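writing this on my phone so excuse typos. first protein, seq and then structure
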Amino acid sequence: MTLIEKQIAFANELALLIRQGRLEESKVGVERLMQSLIPMISQLPTIHQQRLIQISEQFISTQQQRDWFGLADYLDSELIDFLSFLRGKASGADACTPV
């Protein structure tokens, strides 16, 4: 499983935890997910860097507003869609390698 595939699976798990009301568990997971996304930024083409930064900023804003269902939706839609897009564009053993 590639890094991006792991991030997609983890984002799905987090969205489920949030929807189940398991907020304490999800808060730790959200931090871990964000930490795993940071190193990706420098490995992406500029246009994808900008999009990942926008997604991350919205992700943090939604969390700060304590909009948990919005955060779960954001994980399911924006972040997973973007990571899936990157997975489709990636080549080689490391799915984070820019094309």
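second protein below, same order as before
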Amino acid sequence: MMMIYHLYQYLLLIVLIFFKLIADGRVYRELRNQKLFGLFDFDNAFSYWNKLDGEVVEDNPMRGLAKKIGEDDIYAIMVPIPENPQIKKNK
């Protein structure tokens, strides 16, 4: 159980780092205008995704919510929710 907790903390740290990186345009410029995306889940990471300023380019959670950040090719994408009756029941 302790190992799972540490893994969770590590993943949350990665999400926080990515959140800071895509909010800073310098990172994108240093990547020489390559496409950049971050993948978020619907646990704690949703609140970070939701705070990002950007144009929502996909608003269906079954396909994966997506935002385009700024004018560059930077995207924040939520993991799609599977079409599963048990998941729909718990929302």
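The chain has one domain: 2-89. thats all i got for now
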